[in-house]
Fold this sequence. Notes:
The protein is an alpha+beta fold and 185 residues long.
Amino acid sequence: MSWKDTLWVVGSAGVALLALSYFTDAGSLLKRSHREQRPTWNEGTISAGYIGTQLREIDKTRSSLIISYDLENNTDSDYRLTDGPGLVILSRLKSDGSFSQEQPIRLSYPVFLPARQHGRLAIEISQPFNWPNEDDSAFLDKMRNFVKQRLENVGEFVLFDQTSHRQLELPSGWDQLQDSPQASG
């Protein structure tokens, strides 16, 4: 083999390796770019309407504020929701529209919502609360104030289901609770 032939073979191999390296890097760049491009949240496929709020005693020092909603599945697919790491529930603040995780909010129970059907959902906020005695003259006021403090700056709750990439907006309706005797649940 002549010197020119050897140089041609080595040069061709170098070009082939360079091209292979380029396509491998370009492929991984495309994959990485595709992975980094997050899909948008699927909004509006499940609609929610506020039903009511209830305050429950867990024990003498803790309470659970339960907020219930009627859901409507506007899709042709069944939908399941379970509490866990793939589910995030945030408060959207009235003051500036930002999200807050100031309060620990969780799903009260798993939800199965068949296609084109209605179902119920409840979220729960558990907080320390020294329950007043029922014979306390300020019993109802103390309970109303507790509920008011938890919800006064909340415009709505927003549920993010990371598994299905759905976003559910859970509207407020608790403004009427501030003066209602039913605020105590």
